[in-house]
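Q: Please design a sequence for this.
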């Protein structure tokens, strides 16, 4: 298919991009998940871009864009802005091509992402407290120095580079019916959808594309309904890698034509998905990369046939991972906090511990206080952090406490 039938790159352009990026990009594994297949009711494959160089798919678009620069542009150097994945992708691509790179990152960016970007040879400038502020600083730097600005998603070369992932999916799972892809600014979804739709059309079949956004930052969900790019008031989300307030110009045109559906997932659902990937698939995936799994677990998607879920990245700060694991356990009702009022007399803590032990619940932390709100002078309150096996087990634990004469309150 050589003629442009969509707003995005042609299949030929994506295949040419694959020839270029193959110099640095790995063909990442395609794993299967029996657990998710049972949840969805059809085969589920996991495209592991969390195992890509730099820890995400971003190196594809960045390298393809940089290879298209003229010698004069390469001599001026490049500049980009990012809180993580795009920064590392541009830094590595520039190093491989011998181009000087300056990366603007927000003050307070996660230390592992900062260190990795510097490790790839980029000059990192900390500017602003949000990615938007860093982007403005990068644009000003470009205007002042002549360095070529490398956008994170809104450029034809970037989209074509990300589209190479779609070609890999078709080669690894030729009978794919549905691809679930995380959506932020839209570069990945636009590229993958362009590759899949055009390739499938050559054989007279179709591949369904479902985009997933974080509920707190979902401009595509709104824009697709209205038919025009729409700015939203994005709220904080653990899926910061796909947190944008407005779709890209080129990306929206492509996604409007090629993506069949956009769904959203909550942070709690995303945290649970990350935990499932860690426990069931032994894969470390960042929040933005796990939203497709969250869509399956929450039954936002169904009747999909053979399904590929793109795990778009694995760059997560260990401290954030610790918080996410706790959030995921709580979302799955496997970690609860119990507050139990009781008489202030010896033996009560022992009695409660015995009840929980008999119920096979594991106590992680205990706070004993006489100063809880509403307590009588002769009462105390226990706050217990307890590990359980899930919602049914929680109900069993609560019932055993009630049978023992207590009135527990639970916080998930």
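A: Design:
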């Amino acid at each position: 298919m050589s003629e442009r039938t969509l707003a995005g790159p042609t299949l030929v352009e994506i295949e040419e991009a694959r020839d270029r990026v193959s110099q640095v990009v790995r063909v990442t594994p395609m794993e299967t998940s029996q657990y998710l297949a049972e949840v969805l009711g059809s085969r589920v494959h996991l495209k592991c871009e969390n195992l890509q160089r730099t820890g995400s798919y971003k190196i594809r678009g960045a390298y393809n864009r940089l290879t298209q620069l003229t010698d004069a542009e390469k001599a001026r150097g490049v500049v980009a802005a990012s809180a993580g994945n795009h920064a590392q992708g541009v830094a590595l691509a520039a190093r491989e091509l011998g181009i000087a790179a300056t990366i603007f990152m927000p003050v307070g960016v996660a230390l592992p992402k900062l260190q990795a970007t510097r490790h790839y040879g980029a000059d990192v400038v900390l500017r602003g407290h949000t990615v938007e502020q860093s982007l403005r600083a990068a644009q000003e730097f470009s205007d002042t120095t002549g360095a070529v600005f490398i956008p994170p998603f809104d450029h034809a070369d970037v989209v074509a580079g990300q589209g190479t992932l779609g070609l890999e999916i078709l080669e690894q799972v030729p009978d794919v019916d549905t691809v679930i892809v995380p959506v932020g600014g839209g570069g990945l979804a636009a590229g993958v959808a362009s590759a899949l739709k055009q390739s499938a059309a050559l054989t007279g079949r179709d591949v369904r594309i479902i985009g997933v956004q974080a509920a707190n930052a979902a401009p595509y969900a709104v824009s697709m309904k209205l038919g025009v790019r729409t700015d939203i008031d994005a709220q904080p989300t653990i899926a910061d890698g796909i947190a944008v307030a407005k779709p890209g110009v080129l990306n929206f045109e492509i996604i409007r034509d090629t993506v069949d559906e956009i769904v959203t997932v909550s942070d709690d659902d995303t945290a649970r998905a990350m935990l499932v990937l860690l426990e069931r698939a032994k894969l470390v995936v960042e929040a933005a990369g796990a939203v497709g799994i969250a869509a399956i677990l929450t039954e936002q998607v169904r009747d999909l046939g053979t399904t590929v879920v793109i795990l778009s990245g694995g760059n997560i700060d260990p401290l954030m991972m610790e918080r996410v694991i706790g959030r995921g356990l709580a979302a799955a009702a496997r970690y609860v906090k119990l507050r139990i009022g009781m008489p202030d007399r010896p033996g009560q803590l022992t009695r409660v511990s015995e009840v929980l032990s008999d119920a096979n619940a594991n106590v992680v932390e205990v706070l004993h206080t006489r100063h809880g709100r509403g307590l009588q002078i002769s009462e105390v309150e226990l706050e217990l952090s307890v590990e359980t096996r899930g919602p049914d087990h929680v109900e069993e634990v609560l019932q055993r406490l009630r049978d023992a004469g207590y009135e527990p309150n639970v916080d998930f």
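Q: Thanks. Anything notable?
A: The chain is about 45% helix and 20% strand. The chain has a mean pLDDT of 91.
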